[in-house]
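DATA SHEET
Item: assembly model
Revision: 1
Owner: S.N.
Input lines:
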Amino acid sequence: AQTVTQSQPEMSVQEAETVTLSCTYDTSESDYYLFWYKQPPSRQMILVIRQEAYKQQNATENRFSVNFQKAAKSFSLKISDSQLGDAAMYFCAYRETSGSRLTFGEGTQLTVNP
Amino acid sequence: ETGVTQTPRHLVMGMTNKKSLKCEQHLGHNAMYWYKQSAKKPLELMFVYNFKEQTENNSVPSRFSPECPNSSHLFLHLHTLQPEDSALYLCASSLGSGGTYEQYFGPGTRLTVT
């Protein structure tokens, strides 16, 4: 069974600084999708960024980028120029190419200090 | 706003009550999902519907009964719940049920079972 592990329950960063959130996963599949979701205090789950496993190039979305290491089964999220609005719980998630199930990690609570 | 709405946003019910959670999506999607988010645990997929047909049941107890009358509406009927069923229940939808399709989440229903 696929598992997703986020080893950092909490992280903090100063406003305008850069922070990296870690995620590892376990799968025997060669093709799959990886996601980072953000859940602010409103509890609305919002997709931040996605990565297709067959793509070697790391995904980027404005201030958000990933470091995808397929062999190491690692998928970290880098947030540059952190803003107060980035404070939230961040979840890493995995999904098989043909599957409907999203498997989530335990989450990392990010605090942004002014 | 992601185009997925859930009602009610908060619900308190006794163990002998019967209640229903409602989810509606305005995105023209064909797949809908129920997830359970408990404190200190990763999100857990409960049910998947694709074109109104249930395609996945993640070993959910029968006291949770889903209903999908059409592709835009999803219900979760609750009866004889236990205190450990207290959690945030999230609904999501996607254009298709395969891995390439992004899931859009609703704001959730915070359920407390007394």
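QC remark: Residues 25 and 38 of chain B are 23 Å apart (CA to CA).
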